[in-house]
Amino acid sequence: MPETIRAVVVDPSSPQGLGLKPVELAPASPDEITVRVTAISLNRGEVRRATSQGQPGDRPGWDFAGVVEARAANGSGPPVGTRVVGMLPSGAWAERIRAPSHSVAPLPEGVTDAQAATLPVAGLTALHALRQGGPLLGRKVLVDGASGGVGHLAVQLAAASGALVWGQVRQSQFRGTIADWCGERVVTGADLKAAQPHGPFHLILDSVGGPALAAALTMLAPGGTCVTFGVSESATSTIASGEFFRVGGVKLYGLILFHELRRVEPAADGLTLLAGLVAGRVLRPHVAVEAPWTEIGPVARQLLDRTFAGKAVLHLG
After folding, report:
1. For a Cys-Cys bond, which of 41, 60, 111, 308 suits 117, CB 3.0-4.6 Å?
2. What is the pLDDT of residues 268-283, one digit of tens each?
3. Are 220 and 304 part of one and the same domain?
4. In a domain, 73, yes or no
């Protein structure tokens, strides 16, 4: 008999269109472990997509932390009882899940479920974006949307790599979320052009799009790279192409995390690194909101309305 569990589904009758419903737990594939989920993290992109484009019954959810209940049939993955962090393309927001062993990593002592749940999409996006800059020691890095889920982790990882990091925040009250790593190198306001006097930059991370991306492409050093991975402001941008290419050797890189995980390395590798940095107190995820997962609707609304900096984590049972 199929096993029934509770999961977050797209439900037009629930607040913000997300609710908890019984669903069937699919049988495990040979490379899948079974995880009892203890915490989930929300990302603005997946919430926006689920609430604006999702069909009734769709199961959103990328990030999870939990405990292994059954090892994969092929013997891969952490053993039963191991606390893990991981990600799925969808459906991670559930009581129990099946996850490919290459998408989960064991958690070191001292890393909480809430900290772990912030790491998959936001942490791995920051990690892969920064790697596009190569060695960062002594080099200038600019991160827009720096108080957001990806941004606040990116400035920390860049600083840990020895970069000189500038972070842009739109609201002055969020300045403190990145001040420990950027110091006085915080640019406040909606216009990324305000960072121009501090450039040119070896690497710019853009999650905003629109005018911010256009501005970023005019602030690169020769051989520099702009990595774009979000369009929170606008999906279109008008660029000064001559000003961009005449710098020489500059690049614009479009990053899709799930593509990187197929092309570069599996999620487990990056998650092992990130969890170790949290355990060593090099990386400090900012968990702004913690609530039971029954509050999925109201917390999703807060996230979309940008009422907090950092990450939102929901706990199960």
Report:
1. 41
2. 999 999 999 999 999 9
3. no
4. yes
pLDDT at 1: 65
Sorted by sequence, the CB contacts under 8 Å of residue 153 that are 6+ apart come out as 118, 119, 122, 123, 126, 283, 285
Other CB atoms closer than 10 Å to residue 13's CB: what's the count? 7
d(C-alpha 95, C-alpha 61), whole Å: 12
pLDDT in the model for residue 232? 85
The total number of structural domains that make up the chain: 2
Low-confidence residues of the chain: pLDDT under 50: none
- Judge whether 202 and 133 are in contact, CB under 8 Å: yes
> Does residue 311 lie in a domain region?
yes
Which residues span the domain enclosing 214?
A: 133-254
Domain final residue pick, 226, 254, 282: 254
Rounded Cα distance between 188 and 193, Å, is 11
Q: 108: how many CB neighbours lie within 10 A of its CB?
A: 15
pLDDT tens for 144-167 read 999 999 999 999 999 999 999 999
